[in-house]
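Lab manual, section 2.4: Encoding a predicted structure.

Procedure: take the sequence of the chain (212 residues), apply the prediction step described in section 2.3, and record the output as structure tokens. A sample record is shown.
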Amino acid sequence: MIFITGTDTGVGKTYVSSIIGRELKKELNVGYLKPIETGGREDTLKLKKTLNLEEPLEIINPINLSLPLSPNIAFEVENYNISLEEILKRIEEAYNYLKNKYDFLIVEGAGGVCVPIKGNFLMSDLIKFLGLPAIIVSRPNLGTINHTLLTIEHLRNKGIEVRGVIINCITPLKEVLYYEKTFETIEEVGDVEIIGVVESDKYWIRMEKVKY
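Recorded output:
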């Protein structure tokens, strides 16, 4: 089981999750859980199709909000009256069902690790609640060192294992100056391993780091 998080929204968590899912399906029965999705169910629908999942959307994505906002804000402006206890109950029930059905479960977050879900309960608190290790999806271009190191530090301060970083090239590597130095800095300063690089349909990912 793994939790896919990212340094920010739009960094490519869903795309990376779909690649990991396809690779793992070559040898395992793989499920997917998007505990919370805002702005509709685009991510959930994509992985449901990619992994050919039969579960209803309400299990794959137990908490769904219409507007593309931080969950805590979406709950408020949509007048979605639900307690944190009920949110966690729905997520836990879906998680337990799916993890008992599949050999491996990919759980994908919404936004970054400090996105509030309800009150001061953050996405990182959900990772901790589920007891999962995390993989961070990051980007290669300017600013990523700061965002990635902050994400690593925050997760570790919560007692969450960081399994590695996957760089998703939303900016083509050929356009990024000295990206190799950026990657080296993330690994050295963050005491972490970059376990994959995804550039469009070309990628390498150390799947043994994902699975174990």
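Check your result against the sample. The chain has a mean pLDDT of 95.
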